[in-house]
Amino acid sequence: MRAMIGYLLTLLTLSCFYILVLKVGEEWNNVKPVSAVLEGKIKMNDIHLQQNSYIYDRNNELISEHINEQKRKYISLKEIPDIVKQIFIVTEDSHFYEHSGFDIAGVTRAAIVNAKSGALEQGGSTITQQLARNLFLNHEKTLNRKLSELLYAYQLEKKLTKDEILELYLNAIYFQNGIYGIETAAQYYFSRPLKQLSLGELAFICAIPNNPSLYDPLTHFTETKKRQERILQILFNKGIINKETFDAARSEQISLRLQKPVDLFPDYVTYVYHELKQLISLKEGISGEQLDKRASEVLQSGVRIYTSLEPRIQQKAIAAVQTYLPYKNVQGAAVVIDHTTDEIIALTGGKHYKKFDFHRAFQAYRQPGSAIKPLLVYGPYIDRFGATSYSLVSAKAFCKNGYCPKNYSNRTYGMVTLETALQYSYNTPAVRLLDEIGIEQAFAYLKKFEFNSLTTKDYALPAAIGGFTKGMTPLELTNAYTTFAHDGMFQKAHAIRKVTDLQGNVLYEWPQHTKKVWSKKTNDIMRKMLAQVVKEGTAKKAYFPSPYIGGKTGTTNDYKDLWFIGLTNVYTAGVWVGQDKPTNIELISKQTPHLHIWKTIMQSKK
């Protein structure tokens, strides 16, 4: 009875196929224009399968894989073992090297084999048709789709060699669980590259594409193993393997060892994706939705992104933020820049940060408090008027046009040196100096640091002590302070060193561009003053022995933000502490967590 049903199915399948061929003949005049369109529009050189992209640290160690909708690691045909090619040809398309895209005899043979076995042992579509379906079409079982499949297969055979078609096919086919391509399947199911698998393991994964849901090794291991044994039997029957090899492969114990994708350092990797868009935008002059689409295309094409990440310091920064901020709802961010190379080597997005969450290092715009004084007030004043650290300024009460700032604890100090005023972060001297420089002149210096959120509303005296409409991000402020390590020159720091394709060709690199902010003489004076802040002033809890150490604290009104930006001879680092919804954290400020975080990170040796 079973055999009778099989032969009836065979007859029905053959009848349908011949009707299909007749239909193609009847519609040939209509098909010609479609073929002509395909001839012009299907550029086989432009056929690109989606591939994974990879992000590396400064030591070229993989830290994250970008997995597209189709998880795939593409390999060339010469990298694929011959036995794998033979398996797919004998089980899917035995006349592959003879037909021109479709095989009537193959359909007949597949129908007979399937009828005899009572199972779907062989498919009716050729390898070329299956490739056409994967590249250009869907898996609908309709006459129109089948006609299109034949046309696309015909075009593929005209444009590509048989080996090129086979290579694309073996990289395109689906292996269930989001896995595409034979190499990806080997690494996912066995955690080893294809070339290291045994014959039994190769035949096992080659069993999956025939019916990925039925032969899913994770849910139907037994069914997959049965098909593997049938594949091995076919290889033996055709004389491709001998009896000893057949017996050994069939009896081999198959043990799955699933490989999870690498996805480390979410704080840093999240920023790398952001910077990649900036890099593409700069090179290609695009923005908005067009930029989003282009960035997606780049990642789907398969690229390698080489970064400046220093894993040891990144881990130390994350641990320091966690350790010194145990308070509920209190967040923090840290940025570390190697100013000898202008590279971002570490940055944290917040406590317990998850990939692609709101990132406080580069997305949180906060009032900078007194941390802005060296950039907006003291540096410009010394540069413009030739002042020194010993030049005097009044720390008495100040009031102009209704604006009357106060020093900490409402105290006044009379005449003090610039060094003392900065060292103890007096407010009235800073406002006086800004008034003397002139707001427009002072902001001309500040604009060189490329703060994204500056507006004309910020051009006012309160800016001298951190009063801005939006403020700055920890990354922006930290980057600005690298100027003190560069003799007064500003260079924008980056996380990405270069982006290449999978063959190593460079696609994107940041251009080098420096700006002179102030003179070397001014910079030398500022470095001396910043050193005093750490040795004797408001940041002395951050001090440790170093060839150079200096920086500036910042506290905003009502203790809503705590800052410290400082530098050594090698690194410039910035730390911000606060709540996402600005709230008074005066009690926490007494513990100076921002200084402890900074010191912990910066005591790392290069």
UniProtKB/TrEMBL annotation:
Penicillin-binding protein transpeptidase domain residues: 332-568
PROSITE patterns attached to this UniProt entry: PROKAR_LIPOPROTEIN
UniProt cross-references to Gene3D superfamilies, sorted A to Z: Biosynthetic peptidoglycan transglycosylase-like, DD-peptidase/beta-lactamase superfamily
Highest taxon of source: Bacteria
Residue ranges of every copy of the Glycosyl transferase family domain listed in the record: 62-233
Recorded catalytic activity of this chain's protein: [GlcNAc-(1->4)-Mur2Ac(oyl-L-Ala-gamma-D-Glu-L-Lys-D-Ala-D-Ala)](n)-di-trans,octa-cis-undecaprenyl diphosphate + beta-D-GlcNAc-(1->4)-Mur2Ac(oyl-L-Ala-gamma-D-Glu-L-Lys-D-Ala-D-Ala)-di-trans,octa-cis-undecaprenyl diphosphate = [GlcNAc-(1->4)-Mur2Ac(oyl-L-Ala-gamma-D-Glu-L-Lys-D-Ala-D-Ala)](n+1)-di-trans,octa-cis-undecaprenyl diphosphate + di-trans,octa-cis-undecaprenyl diphosphate + H(+); Preferential cleavage: (Ac)2-L-Lys-D-Ala-|-D-Ala. Also transpeptidation of peptidyl-alanyl moieties that are N-acyl substituents of D-alanine
InterPro entries xrefs: Beta-lactam/transpept-like, Glyco_trans_51, Glycosyltr_51/Transpeptidase, Lysozyme-like_dom_sf, PBP_transglycosylase, PCN-bd_Tpept
Protein's cellular compartments: Cell membrane
Entry keywords, A to Z: Carboxypeptidase, Cell membrane, Cell shape, Cell wall biogenesis/degradation, Glycosyltransferase, Hydrolase, Membrane, Multifunctional enzyme, Peptidoglycan synthesis, Protease, Transferase
GO molecular function: penicillin binding; peptidoglycan glycosyltransferase activity; serine-type D-Ala-D-Ala carboxypeptidase activity
Any one cellular-component term (Gene Ontology): plasma membrane
Gene Ontology biological process terms from the UniProt entry: cell wall organization; peptidoglycan biosynthetic process; proteolysis; regulation of cell shape
Membership in a protein family: In the N-terminal section; belongs to the glycosyltransferase 51 family. In the C-terminal section; belongs to the transpeptidase family.
Name of this chain's protein: Penicillin-binding protein 1A
Species in which this protein is naturally found: [Anoxybacillus] calidus
